[in-house]
Amino acid sequence: MKRNVAFLLVLLAGVGAILVSERREQNTHVSANAVLNVAADVQRDLTRAPMRLTRLSDEEGFASATSLQQTISRMGH
Amino acid sequence: MLPRCDFSRGQPCHSGNRGSRSYSNESSDKCHIRLISAEQFWGLRIYTVLPLALIFFFVYSQLATQKQAAADDRRLHFDTVVAYLGTSTIVALAYFQFPMDWVVTAWAVVVFSLLAAAQLTGRVLFLYQGLLLSVGVLSRGLIHNLFGASYFTGSDWTGRYVVLASAVVILFLTLPFAFGLRNREARNPLTSTLSWRKVAEIVARRPEQLIFFVPTILLTLMLALKMRAGMVTVSWGIEGVLIVLLALLAGERSYRLTGLFILLACVAKIMLRDAWGLAPRDRYVTFIILGAALLLVSFLYTKYRDTMRQFL
User: Fold this and answer.
1) Both B86 and B105 in a single domain?
2) What is the number of structural domains in chain A?
3) Cβ–Cβ of B58/A29 closer than 8 Å?
4) pTM of the model
5) Is the separation of the CB atoms in B176 and B246 below 8 Å?
């Protein structure tokens, strides 16, 4: 009895999902992009960890920005 | 046949879901910590993926019975594979459905549910899954929320504390289930001869250790990284006292040693750093609160000396 009820619930959920998705007509592009997204997120987080541990002071940040600006303007001329 | 599952991030970030993101501007970072509306939450992803998880768990419940017809499948561990697929589906759904910073909290809720399921159904498989996912919560919390956190999400109260603290609280709330499962698992003898399975069994016999240390590590590091420099020692002192109180309630030696270690770390930090480097106001507050914390712990040790001896 319990098993039949559980089966009916699962069946109803599945059929309900099909009906709703057919009614809404949202086409989903199936690809491996989701896995790539996960890999990209993890890579991004991993690369940010060292930055978090070696933060620059405001003075150092301004100094490197000024240096970059000077280099770029020299390259422009 | 079920509709195709949508694990892609199709919607733009301003809708609340995790859509296409640019990592460099403030608005995109801020939207990661905003909760999504109910209408967006119960969208395509939920109703295409959730039935799959239901099907996996239903099949698992049928295979895990003691009936002869399922005996061959059990020998090949199909029941375990299907149960792991069901949980993985929910974990993946939580990863894609919630804003990035809140994934850790969603996973903590799954850990809570898995340990509750293990306790209620008596199936040790859910305990293994819960412990495995608690390691996932630790990794995610460390890599994304603490060390990978953006300057922008870390600038307000929600981004600094609420997100990770909610995961920490949920994991601490899981402890009663972990203690219940410890009492049950401790009665079972070790069965595995393989070294990695033996390690897994030993960890599963003491689930309260992992479920305690994961949120404690996250909380300690969160306080160290997110608190104002002058208040780190104070917050660690309060954490140490709370952990010693928890140790007294739970009667657990490792918890008590952890609380004492944190308090000793506070004393060392005060002597080596805070006394020389803090602003006067922060220094007074730190000394007063840590002094009070140490006195309180000393009082508790004296009052509950007999209880302490029992779990030495």
Assistant:
1) no
2) 1
3) no
4) 0.79
5) no
